[in-house]
């Protein structure tokens, strides 16, 4: 992906939005528990550009592109943003990052025998609650 240039065919241009613009519209305030970045090779640009929004993110999953945004580059970018970072051991296709404060709390909860697995995992993988347990 690159910025449009004069001479590009009209059909080659697509609208793009910044993370800041998306968050301003859909989630303007408060922390973001989990973010998944899969933006077809533009991950490095998003993680190194204007990233004021990143401080709101508690945990993140970022797609790795072996021919561009390598695992080492992804982990370095996540660490520069203040995350503890590692490659997803189940697939090797994503960098995972969690804020140190979130990681410390998770370790404390595990030591104390509390199951906190839902607090930092991918929401798309969460088990659905029964109808009876849902808030009105």
Helix-strand string: HEHEHEEH
How are the strands of the largest sheet arranged?
A: 1-2-4-3
**Low-pLDDT stretches:** 119-136
Report the span from N to C terminus.
44 Å
Largest sheet: 4 strands, mixed
Instruction: Supply the helix-strand structural class.
Output: alpha+beta
Q: What is the number of strand segments?
A: 4
% residues in beta strands: 5-15%
How does the overall form come out from the CA principal axes?
A: globular
Which bin fits the share of residues in helices?
25-40%
Number of helices: 4
Q: What is the residue-averaged pLDDT?
A: 79
State Rg.
18 Å
Q: What would your notes on this structure say?
A:
Residues 119-136 have low confidence and may be disordered. With 136 residues, the protein is an alpha+beta fold. The protein has helices at 19-26, 43-48, 71-80, 100-111, and strands at 35-37, 59-63, 84-87, 94-98. It has a domain at 28-120. The protein contains four helices and four strands; from the N terminus they run H-E-H-E-H-E-E-H.
What's a concise summary of this model?
With 136 residues, this protein is of the alpha+beta class.
Brief descriptors of the model:
4-stranded mixed beta sheet; single chain; 4 strands; alpha+beta; globular; about 140 residues; about 25% helix
Element layout with pairings:
Blueprint: H1 19-26, E1 35-37, H2 43-48, E2 59-63, H3 71-80, E3 84-87, E4 94-98, H4 100-111
Parallel strand pairs: 1-2
Antiparallel strand pairs: 2-4, 3-4
């Amino acid at each position: 992906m690159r910025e449009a240039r004069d001479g590009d065919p009209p059909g080659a241009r697509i609208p793009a939005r910044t993370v800041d613009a998306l968050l301003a519209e859909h989630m303007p305030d408060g922390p973001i528990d989990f973010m998944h970045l899969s933006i077809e090779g533009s991950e490095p640009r998003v993680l190194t550009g204007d990233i004021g929004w990143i401080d709101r993110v508690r945990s993140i999953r970022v797609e790795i592109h072996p021919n561009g945004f390598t695992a080492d580059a992804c982990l370095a970018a996540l660490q520069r943003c203040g995350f503890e970072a590692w490659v997803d051991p189940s697939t090797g296709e994503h960098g995972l990052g969690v804020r140190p404060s979130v990681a410390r709390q998770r370790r404390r909860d595990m030591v104390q025998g509390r199951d906190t697995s839902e607090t930092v995992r991918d929401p798309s993988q969460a088990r659905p609650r029964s109808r009876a347990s849902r808030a009105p």
